[in-house]
Write a structure and sequence with these properties.
There is one protein chain. The protein has 285 residues and is an alpha/beta fold. Helices cover 38% and strands 16% of the residues. It contains eleven helices and eight strands. Strands 1, 2, 3, 4, 5, 6, 7 and 8 form an eight-stranded mixed sheet that branches. The protein is globular. It starts with a strand and ends in a 5-residue tail after the last strand. The relative contact order is 0.19.
């Protein structure tokens, strides 16, 4: 089985619609794909209706968190999307995205970059607006060559010249809320140092004690040494190990299924989840 547990659609900052994502996942030879848009479940209905035969969809989200001033992302799988406490927290985070993006635009204008809200809003479409959309605007304007090049201290990285903080959930609260909604939690790309400061291993150990289920090890932002270190950490802490593409369509160069999760780990995730079940394809709409 080929299993990719971290993918984004136009419901957040990917370039494939949810329906396109599941069709492209099947075409890429995947058996299981997870839809994990940032702080939203708006893509679920379209994706579920379009799942092709032979593909299984895992519903999820990537939650924006912060600990001791360090931003991090928590993947949440197979939770009840209507559970009130987790829904309210997701809405708090999502509602802060527009004023944050507008504040980043003001900072960029002050740096001489003629980006506008209309431009960023057009790029975001119906998705939850975020830094990747602002980064795409910088690419359109010729300020940087790629989206990744916008995530530096010169521009949009944490603490960068145009960075603006947003409401982010305490990860221990995120673990509690996801568990309360019947879901499973995995710390996304924990060693992605090029994105900014990373969470220390001591804090990951505290999260494991608080109920964190796993860490994402095989990821495009982890080199071989980081993967070896994270595997050892996961073994020490009794955490599941996942691998995923973090696919964003044309916004990133990584392909669907470029990194995958072991079928036994996927099976354990589905066994632990009680809030929702994987959706087998029926041919799609």
């Amino acid at each position: 089985m080929r299993i990719d547990l971290h993918c984004h659609s136009t419901a957040s900052d990917g370039t494939d619609t949810p329906a396109e994502l599941v069709r492209n996942a099947a075409a890429a030879g995947l058996d299981v794909v997870a839809l994990t848009d940032h702080d939203t479940t708006r893509g679920y209905t379209e994706a579920i209706a379009a799942v092709p035969q032979g593909l299984t969809l895992v519903t999820g989200a990537e939650l924006s968190c912060r600990i001791d001033g360090v931003s991090m992302h928590m993947l949440a799988y197979l939770f009840d999307p209507e559970e009130p406490a987790l829904l309210a927290e997701r809405e708090l985070v999502r509602d802060d995205r527009v004023p944050r993006a507008k504040a980043m635009i003001v900072k960029l204008n002050g740096l001489g970059v003629p980006v506008t809200w209309d431009q960023v809003s057009r790029i975001a479409g119906n998705g939850s607006v975020g830094r990747p959309h602002v980064a795409s605007a910088l690419v359109e304007l010729g300020v940087v060559p790629t989206v990744g090049d916008a995530f530096t201290q010169e521009w949009l990285a944490d603490g960068g010249r145009a960075f603006v903080e947003k409401h982010e959930t305490d990860p221990f609260e995120a673990i509690r809320l996801v568990k309360g909604a019947g879901g499973v939690t995995v710390f996304a790309h924990p060693a992605a140092a090029k994105r900014g400061r990373t969470v220390p291993e001591s804090a990951i150990a505290e999260m494991a004690a608080a109920g964190l289920d796993g860490i994402e090890v095989d990821h495009m932002d982890h080199d071989a040494d980081a993967r070896t270190r994270l595997r050892g950490l996961a073994a020490d802490l009794g955490l599941l190990i996942t691998g995923s593409s973090d696919y964003h369509g044309s916004r990133k160069t990584v392909a669907l299924g470029e990194y995958t999760t072991d079928p036994e780990v996927y099976g354990e995730i589905t066994r632990r989840a009680t809030g929702a079940f994987p959706v087998p394809g029926t041919g799609g709409a």
